[in-house]
């Protein structure tokens, strides 16, 4: 399945509104494409069953049954919850070519996706996502 095509975000807010809603760290990652330090995020080693939503807009992004231990320092998933949940965009920052992962609903930066690293997952993909970009809703909540 291909990720959602990049169109105008369904959730649109002014920069000022995002700054009021998000903490400085959340704003830096979600709205300015920063990266949290490895092994510091609250969901890096979480095994709780549930749904991971975008911290900015609440859209469902990933489910715990696709989360795996990659030992890379950030939560890793092998597939989004829905093919339309994320947008993939080429990222040429930092002197390399990577694939950026954005929330399809609000176009917030989530992290990057990598392929062909040899993880024993069904997709051979690693969605490397910043914890601060996510909010976990435990199953049964």
Automatic annotation (TrEMBL):
Necessary cofactors: Zn(2+)
Key word Metal-binding present: yes
Keyword list, A-Z: Metal-binding, Oxidoreductase, Zinc
Top-rank taxon, per record: Bacteria
Region (Disordered): 1-23
One GO location term (cellular component): cytoplasm
EC number: 1.8.4.12
Pfam families with a match to the protein in the record: SelR
InterPro entries registered for this protein in UniProt: Met_Sox_Rdtase_MsrB (IPR028427), Met_Sox_Rdtase_MsrB_dom (IPR002579), Mss4-like_sf (IPR011057)
GO MF terms held by the record: metal ion binding; peptide-methionine (R)-S-oxide reductase activity
PROSITE patterns linked: MSRB
Biased composition regions of type Basic and acidic residues, renumbered to the chain: 12-23
Catalytic activity: L-methionyl-[protein] + [thioredoxin]-disulfide + H2O = L-methionyl-(R)-S-oxide-[protein] + [thioredoxin]-dithiol
A GO biological-process term: response to oxidative stress
Protein name: peptide-methionine (R)-S-oxide reductase
Protein's organism: Prauserella muralis
Lineage, highest ranks first: Bacteria, Bacillati, Actinomycetota, Actinomycetes, Pseudonocardiales
